[in-house]
């Protein structure tokens, strides 16, 4: 795991590379990407749960 010193160094390097104007935009884009990914994976898990419930119900009906 990274310590506080490592995070400070990473932040300073990112600030030097991208500049103070571009850095907030990059943070926003990263947050939006993570949010979309989380929503997409949640949808996949919900689909799997629905399929499993259908299979369980079908198996009970056959018995």
From the structure above, extract its key features.
63 residues; mainly alpha; elongated
Description:
- It contains one helix and no strands.
- It has 63 residues and is mainly alpha-helical.
- The chain has a domain at 24-63.
- The radius of gyration is 22 Å and the shape is elongated.
Secondary structure elements and pairings:
Blueprint: H1 4-62
Brief summary:
The chain has 63 residues and is mostly helical. The chain has one helix at 4-62. It has a domain at 24-63.
**How many DSSP E strands?**
0
- The helix/strand order is H
Distance linking N and C termini:
52 Å
Specify the helix fraction band.
over 70%
């Amino acid at each position: 795991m990274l310590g506080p010193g490592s995070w400070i160094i990473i932040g300073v390097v990112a600030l030097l590379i991208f500049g103070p104007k571009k850095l907030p935009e990059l943070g926003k884009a990263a947050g939006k990407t993570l949010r979309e990914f989380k929503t997409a994976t949640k949808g996949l898990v919900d689909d799997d749960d629905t399929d499993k419930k259908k299979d369980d119900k079908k198996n009970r009906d056959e018995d």
